Amino acid sequence: MLNLKINYSYKKLDANLWDNSSSATYFTSSNWHDVVLSFYHGTFLTRRLHKPVYFQASFDDGSWILGFFFVSKTIKGKTITFGHLLGPSDYYDLLYSPSITNEQFQVLFNQIQLDFKSRTMQFVHLKASSKCYQAIAQLPLVISTPLSCVAIPLPETYEAYYSSLSKSVRQNIRTAYNRLEKSNLHVQLEIFEKRDYAQINWEQLKQLYSSRNDFRKEKKYWKSQLYFWLDYGFQHEKDMFDFETIRKTDFTLAVLKINQEIAAYFFGFKIEKNIEINRVVINDDFKFFSPGLLLFNEYIKKEIPQIEGIDLTVGDEKYKFDLGGKPHIIYNLKVSI
């Protein structure tokens, strides 16, 4: 049962093999990995210091694991990172058969460490429900760092959802619509998917995101700033909307317009009857009308028959709980030998 066979490759695994494996998150899909690789190939230092390795592992009982990791060389030796490394990738996991066991995971990780002569392994943004996380958490000398995430579980009807919100949030929603009415402004929700790619003004969305987040960016230490400028060749940091690979993803873009101007939008990915959102943007020109609250209210009102949950992913900002969100935890882990 524990006889292990591993095939390594420095080329991406076949997309059919990748996507025929079930997963609990869209961020493990082949199409999203192509977006990550677009970020990666656009760097100078990162792609020289961190090399992606793909693998397929199988055991005698038919159990299997496949995925990728990055190998990095440092002064202290090699580090193996199981994670996306670049891009707004909120979750990570390996793909594996339902029959996989903790012991098989541990045998795999031990063999990878031996094969690449690494003393440190890192795992980034693993869900607590992941079998991969559960296996690593049992290893000795594990340093575990929890991160908060929030997801909104949805009932069967909009009326039930609206009733579940706090009295103050329901009042805020009514106030937002009243302000629009008094200002003689019209609100409209537009939903775009993969087939609508050519209709979307990606540059406008990117600029709105950039202007919204400029003031939020933390000041970098000089070493980090120097690495950043060298990595991007003294150009601006790339955005996921810069890459053609984003058009291949099964995205959902919801745009709230007030009198035909974008007041707010979110971008994410549907997986079964849930949607994982990795970008929410508010236009401050419409802040008086609570556009973020209206965006999700209008989306839920329209889509609730088709979706069971909205995962707002990493971060525990107040608005996520106002919308009815419930917390869940993901983990960063470090294993040293």
TrEMBL record:
InterPro entries: Acyl_CoA_acyltransferase, BioF2-like_GNAT_dom. Keywords: Transferase. Coiled coil: none annotated. SUPFAM superfamilies: Acyl-CoA N-acyltransferases (Nat). The keyword Cell wall biogenesis/degradation does not apply. One of its GO terms (molecular function) is transferase activity. It holds the Pfam family Acetyltransf_6. Residues 167-320 form the BioF2-like acetyltransferase domain. It comes from the Bacteria. This is Acetyltransferase (GNAT) family protein.
